[in-house]
Design goal:
CATH class of the largest domain in chain A: Alpha Beta
CATH superfamily of the largest domain in chain A: von Willebrand factor, type A domain
Oligomer: heterodimer
Number of helices of chain B: 11
Shape of chain B: elongated
Strand order of the largest sheet of chain B: 21-20-22-23-28-27-26-24-25
Distance between the termini of chain B: 77 Å
Radius of gyration of chain A: 23 Å
Helix content of chain A: 25-40%
Largest sheet of chain A: 6 strands, mixed
Number of strands of chain A: 10
CATH topology of the largest domain in chain B: Rossmann fold
CATH class of the largest domain in chain B: Alpha Beta
Number of helices of chain A: 9
Strand order of the largest sheet of chain A: 5-4-3-6-7-10
CATH superfamily of the largest domain in chain B: Class I glutamine amidotransferase (GATase) domain
Distance between the termini of chain A: 39 Å
Structural class of chain B: alpha+beta
Largest interface: A-B, 67 and 47 residues
Order of helices and strands of chain A: HEHEEHEEHHEHEHEEHEH
Strand content of chain B: 25-35%
Shape of chain A: elongated
Number of strands of chain B: 38
């Protein structure tokens, strides 16, 4: 029996990830009391505001000092803290199969799920290409993590990508005010539609973050001889002399990446580009520490 | 002219030019297939560069194919040679021969004149290269010839070349010959020019002939500066009897050389009477020299002044040169005193007009005493009072007829001007520069010469400072107008005196004569005019000097130019004959044309005598005309042949017919033309290198390393981890 039965998560990963803490940047709505700020007013220790007393309120929350000063009844309200409901959206398209991006993405997803569970937050998984290939509701129990890790192992790269449509659907499907973590190479047909999907998530008060996986070959086109490139999603084949088109290709890719970054920025979505030549744990640590 | 090849067999390898295409097809690269995330940007980039890449690839292929073809072409050793028919041969040939027959072609070189050399060369060409051609020979500025078979000019039918006057430059004949060749329909066209390349013959470049070839044969020897007389003249141009003049002789020759010149003066049409050896003419660094010989003409007649070089080195046609001079006869003069002038002033004027008082026969004027007859040439009137109407009428008539009237007016007379009746004022105003102006304030005036080139100052030497020596204290003011000219001005010595600059000596044309008005008197009370050094010669020059025949230009004329005679001097009902110079001195009847008799067939230099005759056998001499070779023929200024005929493909410039033949033989020999192939190969190599190098920019790596998980390349322009 192997010491660690999971292909995409190891005890070493657990040791490294357990030192990290992922905080929501904005208020979220959880199911239990946790370390994240809730949108609801509760009765914890952090005072937020007064409101008028209405019959039925507990008298212990009555602010007697305010009554003494103003001869009116006020109830003291406190900020409520809750746990985080996170959904990891994993791009399952065929383009992710280039340069080990899909493997890298599954490692990242596993680590993120473990990290969330370890801090009593809920972690779910949605694997999408043109359709939803796998979906697991958020949870934090060890059994949930076990199912999630195994689901990651069972995923196989799909064909095309329709990430924007899937994000639109997800935005409607998910409860409000959760964390949506998108792990993708973002080689999308329509960057504008992707931007609208992010805005949809934002409209639904979700906090979104994009982990953009890239290989340097996708940006630099570093081949120096004639090659025939095979599109992993369409199976289209093109023979090129890389040196002839390199400059134009770089220019266009750069413009595209800029548009993606701008779309994320416009929707107040965290954007983080990760090159797959960098170890995933290190990349993850850098991202979380930088937040 | 075209390309030929010494190694024609090499051209069979020309199909190898397709080798690059075959190699390209045979060794096409089998590109490895690499899975890639998306081809969207790849395809977009390819669309942007597709057209350029296609052109670049075709260019590269064409460049390489051309390179191979050019190397094969070079291996075949291309040569350029003239067509087989050099001067004739295959096809019909038209040749225009333009030969310079100007007098400068009489220059001797190797015991033959250049004209004889040209003559021999043309006959040689007609016998050999041009024997089957149609030929037109342009001799100087003669009428345009037509293309005729060469036989027409050979043997007894050949007219030897003789020097002819050429008023038009040779380039005009060359242009005409070029036009004729252009219009001709022969297969081969040749323009052959034989000349001594005098600069004046080529004021513009020769025409460019498209299909015809041009041969310039420059015959002048390398060292051809021989001595020549370029000009003979008198100074002043119209000498006066007994008045000292100068004979000026201008020469050209070898720089820093010296030549002996002899001067002869003889009555026109007679043997020389006076021979004077002049001092050695020493040429300056530019090859020019001028001799001046003082001479006093003592006979009133037509004189021929001849300057002659004694050296055998001189140009035969310019070794001597003439100047025909007419010394006018003595003219009568009289002095008219109106009023009561100072006798001293009258005497001073008489002495100025004739210092010897009739003792010297060689003096232009003879002054008679007593009453004025009004048939004199010159009348000097001293006006101490305004003349009466009769005198005024006589004065006016005298001037109208062509006499010269000199008036000295008494300053202060202007006060009496208002008292004169209108007809007298009008008659006086017609003679005077204008009506007298109010008297100027008392002042001292210094004279200045306003018109130093006026004939009245001829022969008086440098007049630049002479005016300042004349001081006038009293004068009469006249107002300038369009009919009068101030020859001498008087300017106040003291600018603050209130006086103004005014004319002192005025000239006015009245009818055929002239009126000179001195606004003062040669009297002590008016200044020092009576003792001014220019006063006597100016007074003598005031006398009318009618030209020999009305116009000096008809006296000394270049051959080829028409000579003419004013009809006014011919007696009524008379016919005019012109007697040419020896040997053929048969009179030629000259018809009147307008107000002149003109003769145009002036091809023979020498003295032409104009005579008149009537039916009653009366007759006489009217004058002479001297025709000479143009002075330009004596100035040998050659233009380099390289300037006249620049080195062009269709032009051969040589100094002899033998040299032309050598050049033609050289041109007929094949000359491998390496320059063009080498240049083309180098250009194509550069282009090939450029096209081949273009795809390499940007760098890259092999496909194998691109698919790996951890690419070893350093970070790209994107940050390793970019986050917001």
């Amino acid at each position: 029996m192997p010491i660690h039965p999971y292909k995409y998560f190891s005890p070493a990963d657990a040791a490294r990830v357990s030192k990290l803490q992922l905080h929501a940047r904005q208020v979220v709505e959880g199911v239990i009391t946790g370390r994240h700020k809730s949108s609801h007013r509760g009765f914890s220790v952090e005072f937020t505001e007064h409101r008028d007393y209405v019959p039925g309120d507990e008298l212990r929350h009555l602010d007697w000092r305010a009554y003494a000063r103003s001869d009116r009844y006020y109830i003291k309200l406190y900020a409520q803290e809750t746990n985080l409901r996170a959904t990891i959206v994993l791009d399952n398209s065929a383009s992710m199969n280039f340069a080990g991006k899909f493997e890298y993405a599954r490692h990242l997803a596993a680590c993120m799920a473990y990290l969330l569970a370890s801090q009593q937050d809920l972690a779910g998984l949605v694997a999408v290409d043109e359709t939803v290939k796998a979906e697991m509701a958020p949870g934090s129990a060890p059994s949930h993590l076990d199912r999630l890790f195994r689901a990651l192992e069972n995923l196989k790269p799909g064909k095309g990508t329709d990430l924007a449509a899937q994000l639109h659907a997800l935005a409607e499907r998910l409860p409000r005010r959760g964390l949506v973590l998108i792990i993708s190479d973002l080689w999308l047909r329509d960057a504008a539609e992707f931007a609208r999907a992010l805005q949809h998530l934002r409209y639904r008060r979700h906090q979104a973050a994009v982990l953009h996986l890239l290989d340097r070959a996708e940006i630099d086109l570093p081949y120096d001889k004639q090659v025939a490139l095979l599109d992993l999603e369409t199976n289209e084949r093109v023979q090129i002399d890389p040196a002839e088109i390199r400059d134009g290709y770089r220019r266009q890719v750069e413009q595209y990446l800029t548009s993606v970054r701008r779309a994320c920025g416009d929707s107040d979505v965290e954007y983080n580009a990760m090159f797959v030549d960098q170890p995933y744990d290190k990349a993850l640590t850098q991202w979380i520490n930088r937040r | 002219m075209g390309f030929q090849f010494l190694f024609t067999a090499a051209l069979w390898a020309l199909p190898l030019a397709g080798l690059p295409l075959v190699l390209h097809l045979l060794f096409r690269q089998k590109a490895p297939v690499i899975p890639f995330s998306t081809l969207r940007f790849i395809q977009s980039s390819m669309q942007q560069t597709a057209a350029r890449r296609r052109i670049q690839r075709w260019l590269l292929l064409a460049c390489r194919a051309l390179l191979v073809a050019l190397l094969i072409w070079a291996l075949a050793q291309p040569v350029r040679k003239l067509s087989a028919n050099l001067l004739g041969g295959g096809g019909s040939t038209a040749a225009a021969i333009v030969v310079d027959t100007s007098y400068s072609m009489m220059l001797q070189d190797q015991q033959r004149s250049l004209l004889q050399q040209a003559d021999d060369d043309i006959q040689d060409l007609l016998r050999t290269e041009l024997r089957d051609a149609r030929v037109a020979i342009y001799r100087g500025s003669s009428t345009a010839p037509h293309l005729q078979p060469a036989d027409t000019y050979r043997g007894d039918r050949w007219e030897a070349l003789v020097p002819t006057p050429s008023p038009a430059p040779l380039i005009d004949s060359i242009d005409a010959a070029a036009d004729m060749l252009t219009a001709s329909g022969e297969d081969n066209k040749w323009l052959i020019v034989l000349t001594d390349s005098q600069t004046r013959e080529f004021p513009r470049p020769p025409p460019k002939l498209g299909s015809a070839r041009t041969i310039f044969i420059d015959l002048h020897p390398a060292d051809s500066r021989s001595a020549a007389i370029t000009d003979v003249r008198t100074d002043p141009a119209q000498p006066r009897l007994g008045i000292p003049a100068q004979i000026a002789v201008t020469l050209s020759g070898r720089p820093n050389d010296a030549q002996q010149v002899q001067l002869q003066i003889a009555p026109a049409g007679q043997a020389a009477t006076t021979t004077s050896p002049l001092p050695l003419a020493r040429f300056d660094a530019t090859g020019r020299a001028e001799l001046r010989w003082p001479f006093s003409f003592v006979d009133s007649s037509w004189l021929l002044v001849t300057a002659q070089l004694t050296s055998t080195e001189s140009l035969p046609w310019a070794a001597s040169r003439d100047a025909l001079v007419r010394i006018p006869a003595r003219q009568s003069a009289a002095v008219l005193a109106v009023g009561h002038p100072n006798p001293t002033a009258v005497q001073m004027i008489q002495l100025a007009l004739d210092p010897s008082q009739g003792e010297r026969p060689a003096w232009p004027l003879v002054v008679h005493d007593g009453e004025v007859r009004w048939d004199e040439s010159l009348v000097v009137a001293i006006l101490n009072q305004w003349p009466d109407a009769l005198t005024l009428q006589r004065m006016t008539d005298f001037a109208q007829r062509g006499g010269s009237l000199v008036l000295f007016v008494q300053p202060g007379l202007e006060q009496d001007w208002p008292t004169l009746d209108a007809p007298r004022q009008q008659a006086l105003t017609a003679l005077l520069p204008s009506a007298p102006q109010p008297a100027p304030p008392d002042a001292t005036y210094h004279a200045s010469i306003a018109r130093p080139n006026d004939p009245i100052l001829a022969g008086t030497g440098d007049t630049q400072l002479a005016g300042d020596r004349l001081v006038v204290t009293r004068l009469m003011r006249f107002s300038p107008n369009s009919q009068t000219q101030a020859i001498v001005n008087a300017a106040p010595t003291d600018p603050d005196s209130g006086a103004e600059l005014t004319g002192l000596l005025w000239h006015k044309k009245v009818g055929a004569g002239s009126v000179y008005t001195w606004a003062t008197l040669p009297d002590r009370s008016c200044g020092n005019l009576r003792v001014w050094d220019l006063f006597p010669p100016m007074l003598v020059n005031s006398a009318a000097t009618p030209g020999a025949m009305g116009e000096e230009a008809t006296v000394n004329v270049d051959i080829g130019q028409p000579i003419s005679l004013p009809a006014a001097i011919v007696p009524a009902d008379a016919e005019v004959d012109l007697i040419p110079p020896p040997p053929n001195q048969r009179p030629v009847k000259v018809d009147r044309s307008g107000d002149r008799y003109t003769y145009s067939d002036t091809s023979q230099p020498g003295l032409y005598a104009w005579r008149w005759r009537r039916q009653d056998a009366q007759g006489g001499l009217l004058g002479w005309s001297n025709l000479q070779i143009p002075s330009a023929e004596a100035r040998l200024t050659y233009r380099p042949l390289s300037e006249i005929a620049p080195d062009q493909a269709n032009t051969i410039a040589a100094h002899s017919l033998e040299e032309v033949r050598q050049r033609l033989v050289q041109l007929a020999q094949p000359h491998p033309q390496w320059t063009l192939p080498i240049a083309l190969v180098l250009a194509l190599l550069c282009l090939e290198a450029l096209l081949g190098a273009m795809p390499k920019r940007g760098g890259g790596k092999g496909p194998d390393s691109a698919h790996g998980h951890a690419a070893p390349r350093p970070a790209s322009h994107l940050a390793a981890s970019d986050s917001r």
